[in-house]
Each structure stands twice: as C-alpha cells, then as structure tokens.
Amino acid sequence: MVSPVAEPQGRARPRLRGWLHLVGAVLMAASTALLWRSTTEPVLRLAAMIYASGVTAMLATSATYHVPNWSPRMVAALRRADHSTIFLAVAGTFTPIVLATMPPTFGTVLLALVWVGATAGIVVRNVFHHARPWARIVPYVALGWVGVITLPWLWRHSTTVAVLVAAGGLLYTLGAVVYARRRPDPWPRWFGYHEVFHALTLVAITLHWFAVQQAVST
To answer: Is 130 assigned a ligand-binding role in the annotation?
Structure first.
C-alpha cells in the first residue's frame, strides 16, 4: 500500500508537488563547482562546500519525500528527514557568510551557537513530529533570523551581500507563512500553496547562493 503526502481535507496532492525542489537539487549540486572556484582560501572553500551540501541535502530530501508515493511508514520517516534537513540548510548558509565577513572570534562563537541550535532543532523536530504547522516553522524562522546579528558586518563587507542575505531571509519567512496558512492556493490540481512555498524557497536559495559566492570571493 502506498500513500501520498497528506493534503488538507484529503484532496489529491498537486501534480507538481516536489518537482521544483528536484530541479533545484540538480542545479544546486551542479553549481558547487562554481562555488569551489570562487575562492582559493581553504577555510572558505570548506565553508562553501558545507553550505552547498546542506542546501542540496534539503532539496534532494524534499524531492524524495514529495515526488513518489510511499508507504505510510516511509512517509513518516521521510517527513522527519525533510524537516530535519532544513536546519542543515540554515546552518550551512550561515557558515561561509559568517566566516567570510565577521571577526574570527565572534564569528566562530556565533557559528557554534547556530550549529548547536540546528542540532537541537533536529532533535526536537524528531521528538515532537506531530506539531502543528505554525509550531513547525517557528524554530526554522527563529534560527534563520539570528542572521540579523551579522548584518552590520555584512554591510561593511559588501552592500550587495547584505541586501541579498536580507532579501533571501524575507522570502524564506514569507514562504514559511504561506506554508503555515496554506494560502495562497492558486491551482490546487497542479500548483498549490505548497508549491508557492517551494517556489519562494528556491528564489531565496538563489539570492543566498549569490550572497555566498560574493562573500567568499571578496
């Protein structure tokens, strides 16, 4: 027996469910080489690879969860993995930006706190896996908006990087609100509220990709 990912009121999931993140995962993986060549500094290269790996893992896991039909047991397991990898993407995005733009001591402490927060979030998400949508998104948004602390250094490092990071954060937050409200839901048969959420995350990822590339190369 197979089961689609649950939809409100038992309706069929939109036909494009998961495909945006599948395309995003392929493009993100393919762009890793460009990030690698953006800097010759070993620490920043490693940080960029951590970022690319975290975001690729999030997108690939999301696509794996959403595209096929799975047994109910696999749906539950993949849902937990899907939600857990979001924390990896958030902490991964912080890593090169903080290391490239902030004072070493303060940046290292902040980065350690972010990764501790991400690890705690993964543990909590797997323990309280039946939480309501609003309760699910709050930890991700809270962890992501720790990035406000970095903005003064980002602005001094590069106005472009600061604007890209802030705009990406706003789009991630908007996507989280769409996910929690389940609105707008434009074409439920093909492109519903969840696809709007996924589309916003892809735009945010694109902005943050350019922010990371700029940060590690300047």
So the answer is: no
Distance CA 73, CA 41 (A): 44
Q: How many CB atoms lie within 10 A of CB 198?
A: 24
191: three-class secondary structure by DSSP = strand
Cis peptide before 103 (omega within 30 of 0): no
First CA to last CA distance, the chain? 53
Percentage of the residues of the chain whose pLDDT score is greater than 70: 94
Q: Alpha helices of the chain — where are they, by DSSP H?
A: 19-36, 42-66, 72-101, 104-127, 133-144, 151-157, 159-181, 193-217
Q: Which two tokens stand for residue 191?
A: 């492109």
Q: Which residues contact 93 (CB under 8 A, 6 or more apart)?
A: 51, 54, 55, 208, 212
Collapsing DSSP to helix, strand or coil, 186 comes out as coil
Asked if 129 and 176 touch (Cβ cutoff 8 Å), the reply is no
Tokens at 91, concatenated: 């902490």
Model confidence over 33-48: pLDDT tens digits? 999 999 999 999 999 9
For residue 70, the SS3 value is: strand
pLDDT value of position 125: 87
66 belongs to an annotated ligand binding site: yes
21 has binding-site annotation: no
d(CA 114, CA 168): 18
Amino acid present at 30: A
- Residues constituting the chain: 218
Q: How does residue 9 score in pLDDT terms, banded at 50, 70 and 90?
A: low
Count of CB atoms situated within 10 Å of the CB of 128: 10
